[in-house]
Amino acid sequence: MTIENITSVSMIGKLSSYYGGDFHSSTVDIKELLSGRTSFREEAFCEELHLKSINFDIFVHHVDEDGNVDTEKAGELTGRLFDVERCTEDEFDPMEVFDNVDQYTYEIYEMGRKHHEGIVSDNIFAIDSFMIYPEYREKYIGTAVMHILSEVLEAQFNLKAGCLIVVPKIIYDAEREPEPKDSQYEQLTSRCENFWMNLGFEMVEAPYWYFNLDMRLLVKGQIPGQKVEEKESYPKLVAESATIYEFPSRSNGQTDQ
Known about the structure:
The chain is α+β, with helices and mostly antiparallel strands. The protein has a single domain, classed as Aminopeptidase (3-Layer(aba) Sandwich), CATH 3.40.630. It is built from eight helices and seven strands. It has helices at 30-34, 40-43, 46-50, 84-89, 94-99, 103-115, 141-157, 185-199; strands at 8-16, 51-63, 69-82, 124-132, 163-166, 202-205, 208-212. It has a seven-stranded mixed β-sheet, with helices on both faces. A hairpin with a 5-residue loop joins strand 2 (51-63) and strand 3. The radius of gyration is 20 Å and the shape is globular.
């Protein structure tokens, strides 16, 4: 498949451990369980009940004239679903639950608690790592992935997110590209932040950027399908969901992940 022929994108996720490696479930003593003295819920650790770490493989596709599908892996995304709503249902204090994991996890929860007022959900999805492989960049693949992320979460894991939180950072693939030079970091950081800004994310407190999924993610800073001359007569964000599979033309020369 040539890169120019890419027409669609998909994501396949699997549960993982926040600390790396495969996901490990809580253990339950058989005798204690079968005698009625314990249950899985009583033995389960915090991460398994209320903090779901998920690794997504990102794929691009091309369908030829004969209907044959060509598929290649184009990137990876790792994130965690903070199940705030389940914490409340289970009568746990979310602040205590997430503070027990680590400082970064606590700070993500704090950003959501302070800035998110959701209609869709109170749950938070933190994007811990997101990379499109170098040969697939500037094809709007990263933009398309972000547009389908919340719907994929719901379809594959029955998990609903109300907002997205990310710390923009430069990630490179050591097997596919050289490590950026110190002199490149300022420019690369700016491009990284512009990517999130063009989707509609806003920096609420440095270094955290936030997007409310009650709203519609943007494409190049505006509502998908909106004409340039209509820009002033529409709000920046509208309350509806979006799924993007086809990629727009690159005729304007603007770069994107």
